[in-house]
Amino acid sequence: MVFDNLSTGRRGFVKWGEFFRGDLGKGRDIAGCLSKYKVNAVMHFAASTAVAESVAEPDKYYANNVVNTLNLLDALKTFGIKNLIFSSSAAVYGIPRKIPITESHVLAPINPYGRTKKMAEELLPDYAAAYGMKYAAFRYFNAAGADPDGELGQWYDSFSHLIPLVLDAAAGRERAVRVFGTDYDTPDGTCMRDYVHVSDLASAHVLALESLLGGGDSAVFNLGNGRGYSVLDVIRTAGKITGRKIRVIKTGRRSGDAPVSVASSSKAERTLKWKREYPRLEDIIGTAWNWHKKMAGPGSRRGREVNFIK
Predict the structure, then answer these.
(1) What does the pLDDT read at residue 156?
(2) How many independent structural domains does the chain possess?
(3) 212 in a structural domain
(4) Which of 61, 113, 135, 140 is catalytic?
(5) Are residues 134 and 157 in the same domain?
(6) What CATH number corresponds to the domain at position 273?
(7) pLDDT cut 70: percent of the chain above it
(8) Which residue from 34, 53, 70, 87 puts its CA 20 to 30 A from 94's CA?
């Protein structure tokens, strides 16, 4: 069962199970949902996630990411639901002090988005200790790619991350890709990031659910690829996969960008027996490109609005 207010989600993307339209900001919505369905565990994905927006509108982020998580936890307490899987973020680490980043790395977020995720994480052990709950908190690195079967992917209007922006430039929806900083201490001077396929993220959630329901302990896990790719690596790979020339505009560094951010996911691999099925950058970009083409293809809703440039 999926609970969503559809503020950024799309009803048509709920392809499996039932749907309940509700808002975590409204206690009666949460109670109505939990009263209607027999719930043993909850996966909490709902959040505002754009770093720049969090700086401009911190009130939105503290309300949605912290207060609404508290609302959900209180409802779980009321209804006696003991198992929670929480989507956190690598943004809780801030500027990495050591690579690869492990779960023991100091938490020093540098923007409101990261701080709200850290605050939400801090609620979990307190509720677990007081009310007998158990949880798995996943610190995602850069979630990317699309369903390999083409059933689901990222909606156009929500693009703010590198890979979909690069593919938008390949498709002709954007004129160019802006590269922020070319003088970092990396092999090609551009920032390096860890990209993890959304299908691999999904499999980790299933493993965590099985672990909690089977009596496993609460824990925090990084979910990443364990390898960094530079901005130019992504652009070059996208160019090969799409067969399109991608125009690049090089500009200065952005404040707060770390030169390198790469995860150690050995804890998830060891504890949950998690294995990545799509670790290659080519697979991540390839599935995302297939989704882009489907969204803009003949007969699709977006196809009536978008034409790919040959």
Answers:
(1) 58
(2) 2
(3) no
(4) 113
(5) no
(6) 3.90.25.10
(7) 94
(8) 70
